[in-house]
User: Which sequence fits this backbone?
């Protein structure tokens, strides 16, 4: 058996100690991400039965599972190039958000309907160069906003993962021109040593 690197061993030790990892395993959830979305939803009430929801960066399915239990007759479109654990009613698109082929599939599924909620747990592939990684993260945020401009209904909501760093404050300020209320939050399930934050934008186009 190959010897684990020190970094992978540290990751495993952190996973074993992590309260929300243990909770996810004991509760039968796909990943600890379940609790991040749950805590955001409890605070902002962004998910309601019957909604049409677009989930970007859905793999492995932590948010998807939570959404499936909340939507009750709504529509869930989940996008990721990696496999997503989901129920039979979730409409999965295999690919990268922003690709033309993916956009066509979204349009075909919606068939003229509008979304109530755009969610994103996307993150860039980490290069280790902070400025490069932050720029990539902001590109993903722009993709989410473009999807809102194309398919989100007036009054709809966008909630995305982003990262503290250059460009985020200006992007959030710009977002306030398109949404009534914009909040930057860090749920308890998000690791304290992570730059990860979530942007919750309410009241699109009002």
Assistant:
């Amino acid at each position: 058996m190959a010897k684990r690197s020190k970094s992978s061993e540290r990751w495993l030790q952190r996973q074993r100690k992590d309260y929300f990892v243990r909770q996810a395993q004991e509760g039968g959830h796909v990943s600890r991400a379940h609790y991040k979305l749950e805590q955001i939803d409890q605070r902002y009430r962004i998910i309601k039965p019957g909604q049409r929801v677009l989930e970007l960066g859905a793999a492995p399915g932590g948010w998807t599972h939570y959404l499936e239990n909340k939507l009750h007759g709504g529509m869930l479109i989940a996008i990721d190039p990696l496999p997503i654990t989901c129920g039979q009613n979730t409409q999965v698109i295999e690919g990268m958000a922003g690709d033309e082929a993916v956009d066509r599939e979204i349009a075909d599924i919606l068939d003229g309907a509008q979304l109530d909620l755009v969610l994103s747990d996307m993150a860039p592939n980490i290069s280790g160069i902070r400025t490069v990684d932050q720029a990539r993260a902001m590109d993903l945020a722009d993709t989410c906003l473009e999807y809102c401009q194309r398919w989100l209904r007036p009054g709809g909501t966008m909630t995305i993962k982003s990262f503290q760093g250059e460009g985020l404050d200006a992007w959030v300020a710009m977002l306030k021109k398109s949404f009534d209320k914009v909040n930057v939050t860090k749920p308890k399930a998000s690791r304290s040593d992570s730059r990860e934050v979530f942007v919750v934008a309410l009241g699109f186009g009002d």
